[in-house]
Predict the 3D structure of the following.
Amino acid sequence: MSTESTSVPPPYGHARTVGEPVRRVSIGHPRDTSDRAAPPPHRPASAPLRFGLPLLAGDVLAALLSTTVLNDEQADAFLVVQLVVWVTVLNAHAGLYRPGTVLSGLDQLPALGARIAVAWCVTSAVLAALFPDDALGFPALLGGVAAQTAVACCCRSLVHGRRRAAARDRPRSALVVGTGHAARRMTALLAQHPEYGLRPVGIASLAAPAQDDGTHTPGGRDGGGKDGRGLPVLTTAEEIHRAVIQNGVQEAVFTDPGDGADRSALVALFHEYGCATWLTGDVPWADPAAPVEMARHLWGFGYRRLDPADVRPRGTLAKRLLDVLMAGPALLAVSPVLLSCALAVRLCDGRGVLFRQERVGQDGRPFTLLKFRTLRPADEHESATRWSVVNDRRMSPVGTFLRRTSMDELPQLWNVLRGDMSLVGPRPERPFFVANFSKTHPGYAARHRMPVGITGLAQIHGLRGDTSIEDRSRFDNHYIDHWSLWQDVCILLRTAVSLVRPAGS
């Protein structure tokens, strides 16, 4: 086994200015890493249960009290249970129990009133269908809606009032993410308005300043700087990593959309450490269709919460279902081909039909990739660190044929069924090359936001084998940012067509 050790920057590392990585995948015994901060235990991004329970209790109390406008025969347990169930489901779907900005009951009056009205209408319809004698009249229905809405708003106002006071007295540590005037302005605003419950402890710059403009000065050993208010300016993933741990950062406030790959990497980094992520101002990279917190303002700036689910491409379940439905039957259909390939490799190249190699998958997790053996490397060090060369003289005629037709990749259908890979996605690479490419090619580490695949957008455009890594990264990140199930189907179809005119891998 080689004594070399490679550090694999996680997919959430800053793609442009990543310093020493914090997640390690070793090919041997790691060298001294005493100057690196270890990743902290994962902490939850929020406390949804603790946040939502008081609000849910207020809604239950409102449902109970609202039935007092009815007579004793109508105000039975069935009616109360129906109201509680429907109101809870509708409010949860609208995100009214999710952690977020501390609002007021008056702010949420329209949303609450509309859902309570729907809940009463559905409940009265069910009641009339099951118990016609107890059907609610219009006056009772209107009175119930008004009573429950009023009580629910009062309860929420009390809960939010207490939370605003607590936030003012015990502000949460926050990092402001952005560059230039916008970041400095947001930092000053948070310091001047403690009612928002955020205490800025530093600025995470989306891009290091090209020159000293008075807002960034040389710092200490870590290379950080200071802004005009004396807060540190963090320009690498390592500096952000240390700041989050040392200051107990709980919030990240973005003021600049930044570069797509850098932005996604930083958002994923903060969520990895359990930090809530907020978007301020006109942020075009917030998906309008995504379920975000009700839009509010922070001293006039738009202020919206971005959930961890909104960072990753949606449709994960649909993508996995497509993989299973296609990889399973495909594996059975090509089983005669697999058997023929295995027999040819065994007869021509000897033992060791399957080639197993460590690759880096989604979120930087290593897995064992399967291929048909096409040549025998000199040792494990060469296998882990040597780039594939076309027309390697050590390759047998069978190996050359398998590579040219891409049939050596067929065993990866088993990786797909196992969940290590997807049919479509960025191609997985060895830890040694992931470490090097992540340092030299912006956006490369961000490819690991999505499961790696057998084929992908880069591959169908001819970017296979010894081709531009920068071009591959750009195609892969474009695929992730614009993912759709139909795009996966199109890529699979174009891959099938390309097999008619194979070019090798």
